[in-house]
Amino acid sequence: MSDSIPARRQRRKEARPGEIIAAALAIFHAKGFAASKIEDVARVAGVTKGTVYLYFSSKEALFKAAIRETILPNLDRIKETALAETTARAQLYSAVRLWTAGMSTCRGSTSKLMIAEAGNFPELAEFYRDEVSGRVRRMLSDIIEYGIAQNEFRPCDPAMLARILCGPIVLSNIWRHTFVDPHENQPDMDALADSLLDVVLNGIVSHPKAPL
Amino acid sequence: MSDSIPARRQRRKEARPGEIIAAALAIFHAKGFAASKIEDVARVAGVTKGTVYLYFSSKEALFKAAIRETILPNLDRIKETALAETTARAQLYSAVRLWTAGMSTCRGSTSKLMIAEAGNFPELAEFYRDEVSGRVRRMLSDIIEYGIAQNEFRPCDPAMLARILCGPIVLSNIWRHTFVDPHENQPDMDALADSLLDVVLNGIVSHPKAPL
Amino acid sequence: MSDSIPARRQRRKEARPGEIIAAALAIFHAKGFAASKIEDVARVAGVTKGTVYLYFSSKEALFKAAIRETILPNLDRIKETALAETTARAQLYSAVRLWTAGMSTCRGSTSKLMIAEAGNFPELAEFYRDEVSGRVRRMLSDIIEYGIAQNEFRPCDPAMLARILCGPIVLSNIWRHTFVDPHENQPDMDALADSLLDVVLNGIVSHPKAPL
Amino acid sequence: MSDSIPARRQRRKEARPGEIIAAALAIFHAKGFAASKIEDVARVAGVTKGTVYLYFSSKEALFKAAIRETILPNLDRIKETALAETTARAQLYSAVRLWTAGMSTCRGSTSKLMIAEAGNFPELAEFYRDEVSGRVRRMLSDIIEYGIAQNEFRPCDPAMLARILCGPIVLSNIWRHTFVDPHENQPDMDALADSLLDVVLNGIVSHPKAPL
DNA sequence: AATGAATGAGGGTTCATTCAT
DNA sequence: TATGAATGAACCCTCATTCAT
What we know:
The structure is a homotetramer. By secondary structure, chain A is mainly α.
């Protein structure tokens, strides 16, 4: 309350980079890289144009920093927690639920940004492909592989399965941040995760009760 | 001789908008909307900058035309063909396979473009959400609903199921056009469709053979 | 008379580069490279900023083009004319007078610009040193060498002599374009050339008439 | 221990302006006025940006101070020393040699800076023209006038002669600080002075020994 | 006195758009 | 209809200058 209005020309060297990155993500998420103006980022961050350049050497550098910032904070934690479960099925539930839980609290989708800008940021795209998207898929395929080895799951292609699991989650998350959907209520990420896991584990084909 | 050139001109005059749209899509897919230059579109289309403005009043108008152009050409055909099948399962296979087959021949992903630019083109986003993405999901959920009614499928949320089916397909298609993936071979769309349908229909949980 | 006021948006592709270079030289001469604004160049050239970039890819490129443009147009002609004379003395007079005559008609000094910007344009400086300044000095030292061989001149260092001849000419020309000199009337280039040649050829020490 | 640091601080406080001016000259000489950054000056001076503004109100003020600082320290001494000689010839030698000796030890040419920036600093240019360049020329023309009066030199225009003497010296000094000259070895200032005086006093025309 | 984070006007450059030919 | 030279608004980035500490 007392510190609500930050004074002009306040010196906040430690806090600035984080504030600017947060502002940048908000703007980049809303408009995409090219349509975002540094001045808008600055305004949202409560500073002026010049200050942004005090901490980031260019718009591109800011974009890269913003992407790299928001990426893996929790993936390791998710993996660790999930692997504490004993059955592959439980590991899968745990991993997916933790993942989607994290998504629900975010106000933007990094995937969305990367999809849009990969062509213009090749190195960043490579990084994202390997260290973000790839790591998530590998975590899931490892669990599935384990499940197959344990005879919990029938033999199948774990990499493909990982894609099948990621697809609806990532795309729905992107959709949430892309299309305002007044009437058609988009499912929340957690409900989607439940349905997805149910379907992937059990399928939808009816298995008629064996007759007496 | 005397009539061939006028004839060709005539043909071109009518062909121009299509040629420009095709060029625009190629450029937009490659670079995104903002990073695309009208001059590049013109060069690819084999005309000059001014000519583009003869047919499209602005870069935005060209973008909208390009998006609207490439969407529905085959959805009705797919629907028709799929519904010719008798079982819901066969309808699902037919619809999904026809859909992914169309994707394989495209050199860009409209979804990718829309995801990137929805924020900057609200009306276009609305159109895409309702008339493209929405129609595909509705087609799939209709089939699933039919399958449930027929007792082919166990009771479930058809809309959610449609999302689960669309997710991997759309996202993989986007991925193909976003990340060059030298080592880890991305699955082709058809293989993905097969696995996806197999999993969604049957699940992956092992069902131990009933003992003798 | 009829074409005095060029209409807006007039297309003059052939004439533009020359007009822009002329304007650029005027501005660069007046303010130096860094303090010159492209917009000022454009205004003087009768176009807008964008048009400058139609013909020159950057401010630096414009500077280089301007320097290279104004350089050697007449050096070869001077050399040719001077060497038509028979005595070294006459050659020297001819060369120097033709050189200074050219200067008098110019409204700026390229040397001045190069002196100021050599540090910021290393390749251009090299070019200027070798192809402009160097060529003039070589022309003069060649004549002097010839004069020594002909016994017209006493033995001396031709390169040094060339520097001694160039110094006052170049510096005075620079001065003319650098310091507005209301009271102290700067000598015109031609008078300077005469005095310079007279002194260099004959010295200023009095040689008392040999007594009868 | 307790007083050494305050003492040093005290010393530094008084030394600061001079240190900053020295740094400024180094930077201005290397890059020219516009391309020089206050921050670079500060770094070379061992202080920070803000400190520069503690002693100089603006970049322009710093430039003016730097120019005014480095000019006249020795001119009076040169004049005095030279006029101690009896013959005009010896005075000329003395003055020119002392002048070029001072140049050899400098790592930059003030003339060069003034030439580049005169247009942007009219008052400073006027000052330089009158108090620096002008005073040197007047010193030389006074000596020559004296030589003519003494019948040491034949009648000629002393002002013009002064220009002829200054030209090679000033220009060569500028050249040394402008063009790196790997192959063609630029003469050092002292050798140039010798040759210059020899030529100006004696000319280069051969005077055949009178036959017996 | 000294610092250096913050400011913001200014200028180079791009590119969608116009229009004379 | 087609061209492409010309336009000018927009935006990134720099750096002289200010001022809270």
